[in-house]
Amino acid sequence: NSSIKTEPTVFIIFGGTGDLTSRKIAPALYNLFLDGWLPAQYSIIGTGRTKFTDEQFSENLLKDINQFSRSGKADPKKWAEFSKNIHYQVSDINDFETYKEFGKRVEEHNTEWKTQANVIYYLAVSPNFFPIIASNISKAKLAEDPDRVRIVIEKPFGHDLETAKELNKLLSGIFNECQIYRIDHYLGKETVQNIMAFRFANSIMEPLWNRNYIEHVQISVTEQLGVEERGDYYDGAGAMRDMIQNHLLQLLCHIAMEPPVSFNADEVRNRKVDVLKAMRRFGPDDVRMSAVRGQYASGWMQGKEVPGYREEPKVDPESNTETFAAVKFFVDNWRWQNVPFYVRTGKRMHQSASVITIQFKDVPHLIFPTEAAESWQQNRLIISIQPEMSIRLQVQAKRPGLDMVLNTVDMVFDYKGTYTTQPPEAYETLILDTMLGDQTLFMRGDQVEAAWELIMPILSTWQTKKSLNFPNYSADSWGPESAEALIARDGFNWFTLP
Ligand code: BG6
């Protein structure tokens, strides 16, 4: 399918029996296999505490793939071919012997394949286990070859700036930065990757892409789902840590970054770090004025009664954790001076949609009589990431007829109408990149720290000042009123797709 080829790989999944493996990693590996991206020589080794034979483990993965893969139920012939290379090893991640065993397995593959394979350690486990796994990999001398050995780490990457720094320090004592793949799965989404293509492969946007033409930017990632079964993790995190620190700030970086000199991992990531460093810092008063939080109450969603956040399993009944957050950011540089970036995210919201809206300034002078403008709206560029995958530019146009009447219309690039192929899942892209050794879509250590540094004042203020009015928005709403007020004070309102 392309001249890019993956090399022989041993792919070891810690947390092989966990939820992430079932829902994302296994289907992604299988679809990479179907699309011809896996190398001829590969081995997938799942590991966990429960005892399984290779066959039992592979049977479980088949069930997961049948349920979660975008390609639907697995074809028996293809599955038989793919699953020949699936193995399982029962392990105790605290026990050094486990790691020696991995070393032996890699060596066996190397002998059998007559090569030195790449080895990817995928840590699909709770972050408490990152240090022990990383240290044991090092102790067992499994990380010696920086060109071949890679480690993949899932979020949360730290709980705050300090813990993120500690984790970076630990990892960089064992691995080179070029071996560490920190996942932010939003970066793997097709429509998110397309933002850079749209900005930097077209000449018509760049002249407009600045404070002279753009009035404000909105980034909204709303979900209808509640916290589900993840109360134990989420109650210690909240929307700011769970979504804004990573996904939303990364989207903001895609919009605000300067053009990199090339599409090289470090060039791209340097420009993103520049954005985070240029973002205006918050003092305690700024937090009050520029950041709002919410927590969902019970309510009805699609005809079903749903519990409030405090009634969810494994959540403190008096929890002060926010399930909604909205922040007004500024990027203090030449391009963006005084252009507000409004971001919001929340659970149990009226709509599941991730949308970036760029609102341009008004025309300097309207030559048409005001009555001519039946619907008048400043130009907007709407980048819809999911579930709709599109880019629409809203412009004014004359309505056909004998009189001069103006309407706002959409010029649309819609994935569905343009392409017939199904786009890959974020995890397919990201896992393939770990095999290819391409870090462009992964978070570098300094990027993670810069994002934490920016939001720490908000987190600390919220931690010391409990919110007295939680829960403050009902399920199936657009979040608390204070979020409307945050943007309305500046004369704008949140944009929603119809
Ligand atoms: C995860 C968060 O990183 O992203 C979840 O931990 C959230 O709370 C999820 O639901 C959203 O991802 P997506 O791809 O469904 O938009």
From TrEMBL:
- What is its EC class? oxidoreductase
Domain (Glucose-6-phosphate dehydrogenase NAD-binding): residue spans on this chain: 12-194
One GO BP annotation is: pentose-phosphate shunt, oxidative branch
The protein's name is Glucose-6-phosphate 1-dehydrogenase
Name the Pfam families for this protein. G6PD_C, G6PD_N
Annotated residues for binding of NADP(+): R49, D92, I93, K155
Residues of the Glucose-6-phosphate dehydrogenase C-terminal domain: 196-494
Chain's gene name: zwf
**GO MF entry, a single one:** NADP binding
- EC number annotated for this UniProt entry: 1.1.1.49
* Positions annotated to bind substrate: H185, K189, E223, D242, K347
Pathway per its UniProt entry is: Carbohydrate degradation; pentose phosphate pathway; D-ribulose 5-phosphate from D-glucose 6-phosphate (oxidative stage): step 1/3
Q: Which domain of life is it from?
A: Bacteria
Q: Which GO terms describe its cellular component?
A: cytosol
Question: Active site annotated at which positions?
Answer: H247
Q: Write down the chemical reaction(s) this protein catalyses.
A: D-glucose 6-phosphate + NADP(+) = 6-phospho-D-glucono-1,5-lactone + NADPH + H(+)
Which keywords accompany this UniProt record?
A: Carbohydrate metabolism, Glucose metabolism, NADP, Oxidoreductase
According to its UniProt entry, what is the function of this protein? Answer: Catalyzes the oxidation of glucose 6-phosphate to 6-phosphogluconolactone.
